[in-house]
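ok new one. same drill as before - structure tokens go in, u give me an amino acid for every spot. 429 of them this time. try not to just spam alanines like last time pls lmao
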């Protein structure tokens, strides 16, 4: 939309989402650089907002890896038809939170007019023009994008918006317990972490001595800046948006991915679901193309499936609600349901994989007589190897670990190093 800038918040270490946010056991993958349905999250966000008229973006980054990885993807925006600028690395030493980073960048870039501050680790579907109209009608300094959720879903996980009789925001409950919001009706407004701001008025607020002092100690958007504004006479409004997908944990990631693949996010739809190179690729077992096997039912492709480039799929494979990256091999007779499979991974024959994340170059050494079974939101980092006959439930394994053949790991185990694997084996024994 003309006159609205985009400010991407790129920070944090993605602890809840590990191993998705690790390039290696000791190297962070920025949440902005995480891939979803073939593209990084920051690309999805920029493309979605550009389709609504935003063509000027600013990245408020914290940390060298977050900044460098985001710039490696977006560069200065030419490929996407936008302009992109980045916060100074010298700001990192004094960063006290997302709110402080926003205020500092507003001043540094001398921004005026309206700006949409958005997270780089989520996907969203909303009408920016309608949000701008509501913001102006409310004469708000900040309008909070909110998502309506049942109290039971919001409790303990999301910040809840409190409103006065005039509809303006009066406060926020940060991840409240259920008993504190159970009386609020069938749905409550939860903070989506996206804010439309009047840059000039927010900059003036940021110069208030009390807020400036708070910013020197701790100033996150949800926990500090919004409560300050609402409590000190600054007009804060809320605007319910259509949909907002959280990707902060493997379970959330896979749930949101399924919604994306099922076209619940129209702005993220319209891309080819099976790449032509994969349709024409012959597998080594039958010597037939994927197109031929789909046509005669030898391979079953259910709803919500995306298959990237040069994917080899053997006969008897069944896929549903799954995203298959480039260069993947899927062996004969395997069944994948609710799976994110990273580029160049290998899934051996007869594997049974449900509600699980596989990073890039994962090697699932399943065989027809010793199938591998993954279920209940397993998450395997890049280059993890899983031996034949292994069954995992809710296990997280950091990049480059090997889970040896035929020995169980207790459900829900987090494997961050070889010692964890050995301890898991000992418990299972």
């Amino acid at each position: 939309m003309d006159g609205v800038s985009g400010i991407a918040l790129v920070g944090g270490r993605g602890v809840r989402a590990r191993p998705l946010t690790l390039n290696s056991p000791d190297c962070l993958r920025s949440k902005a650089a995480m891939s979803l349905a073939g593209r990084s999250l920051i690309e999805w966000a920029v493309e979605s907002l550009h389709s609504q008229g935003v063509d000027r973006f600013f990245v408020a980054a914290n940390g060298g890896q977050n900044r460098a990885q985001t710039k490696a993807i977006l560069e200065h925006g030419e490929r996407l038809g936008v302009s992109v600028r980045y916060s100074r690395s010298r700001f990192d030493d004094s960063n006290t939170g997302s709110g402080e980073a926003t205020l500092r960048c507003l001043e540094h870039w001398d921004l005026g007019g309206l700006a949409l501050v958005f997270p780089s680790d989520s996907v969203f579907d909303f009408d920016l023009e309608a949000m701008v109209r509501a913001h102006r009608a409310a004469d708000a300094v900040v309008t909070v994008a909110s998502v309506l959720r049942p109290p039971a879903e919001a409790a303990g996980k999301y910040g809840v918006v409190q409103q006065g009789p005039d509809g303006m925001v009066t406060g926020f409950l940060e991840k409240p317990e259920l008993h504190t919001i159970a009386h609020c009706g069938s749905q409550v407004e939860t903070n989506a972490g996206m804010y439309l701001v009047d840059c000039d008025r927010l900059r003036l607020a940021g110069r208030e001595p009390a807020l400036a002092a708070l910013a020197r100690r701790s100033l996150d958007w949800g926990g500090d800046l919004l409560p300050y504004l609402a409590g000190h006479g600054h007009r804060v409004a809320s605007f319910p948006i259509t949909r907002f997908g959280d990707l902060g944990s493997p379970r959330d990631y896979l749930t949101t991915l399924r919604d994306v693949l099922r076209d619940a996010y129209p702005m993220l739809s319209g891309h080819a679901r099976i790449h032509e190179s994969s349709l024409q690729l012959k597998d080594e077992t039958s010597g037939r193309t994927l197109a031929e096997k789909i046509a005669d039912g030898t391979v079953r492709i259910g709803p919500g499936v995306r298959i990237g480039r040069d994917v080899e799929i053997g006969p008897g494979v069944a896929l549903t609600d799954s995203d298959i990256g480039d260069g993947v091999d899927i062996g004969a007779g395997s069944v994948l349901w609710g799976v994110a499979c990273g580029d160049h991974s290998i899934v051996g024959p007869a594997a049974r994989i449900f509600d699980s994340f596989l990073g890039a170059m994962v090697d699932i050494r399943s065989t027809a007589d010793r199938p591998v079974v993954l279920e209940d939101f397993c998450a395997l980092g890049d280059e993890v190897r899983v031996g034949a006959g292994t069954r995992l439930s809710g296990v997280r394994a950091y990049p480059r670990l090997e889970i040896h053949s035929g020995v169980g790991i207790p459900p829900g185990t987090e494997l961050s190093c070889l010692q964890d694997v050995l301890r898991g084996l000992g418990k299972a024994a």
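The chain has a mean pLDDT of 92. and btw The radius of gyration is 23 Å.
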